[in-house]
Task: inverse folding
């Protein structure tokens, strides 16, 4: 099986399973209380040097709204939709259970997540 990340070598079944089971997170997170409500705001810093396989398709257990904190070349994608840009001032609403992913850019990414 060819590696989708580097496209230059064959991967064994064990290597594929190892990537699928990798539960590391490609970000650090700070959590803040939201003023005037019982909700929280999270700031996540994503690492552009983390392996591509860590940017997995996934879903979340609650609605959330995300916004990039600076200019970047990362993209966001819902399942069965084309990728879209992440930019300051653009808020993307992710409904509970919606399958989505981030597509890595060439530098770090900071996003604000409101729950």
Result:
């Amino acid at each position: 099986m060819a590696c989708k990340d580097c496209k230059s070598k064959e991967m064994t079944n064990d290597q594929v399973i190892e990537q699928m089971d990798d539960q590391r997170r490609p970000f650090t997170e700070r959590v803040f209380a939201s003023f005037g409500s019982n909700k929280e705001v999270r700031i996540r810093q994503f690492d552009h040097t983390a392996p591509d396989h860590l940017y997995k398709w996934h879903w979340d257990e609650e609605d959330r709204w995300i916004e990039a904190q600076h200019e970047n070349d990362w993209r966001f994608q819902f399942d069965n939709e084309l990728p879209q840009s992440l930019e300051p001032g653009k808020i993307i609403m992710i409904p509970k259970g919606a399958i989505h992913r981030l597509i890595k850019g060439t530098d770090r990414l900071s996003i604000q997540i409101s729950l």
User: Anything to note?
Assistant: The chain has one domain: 25-114. The helical segments are 13-21. Residues 25-114 form a domain with the Jelly Rolls fold (CATH 2.60.120.10).
